[in-house]
Design a protein that fits this description.
single chain, 90 residues, mainly alpha, 79% helix, elongated
């Protein structure tokens, strides 16, 4: 998110959709980790939603990964989160 904000400050809004996806992903993952710490009965449902949220974020970040290493790192982290959620669901 910091990377996107720096680009915005410089007048580059090319990552606006990416930033929106990252913001949603961060909010969701924060809530998800809190629910996980409670060993919530809702974790399986949240893991399914986490897959959707992280796949969306990854898709947006992949659009910029060749130009911005931060976008590639975020996309890779989202892909790993998806893999871990799928593992959790099996």
């Amino acid at each position: 998110m910091d990377h996107c904000l720096e680009l915005f400050k410089a007048g580059d809004t090319s990552v606006a959709e990416c930033a929106a996806s990252v913001q949603e992903m961060l909010a969701f993952c924060t809530a998800f980790t809190q629910f996980a710490s409670y060993d919530s009965r809702h974790l399986k449902n949240m893991a399914k939603l986490c897959i959707d949220v992280c796949e969306g974020c990854e898709k947006e970040c992949r659009k910029h990964e060749k130009k911005h290493t931060e976008c590639k790192a975020c996309a890779d982290a989202c892909a790993e989160s998806v893999a871990q959620c799928k593992k959790f669901l099996t």
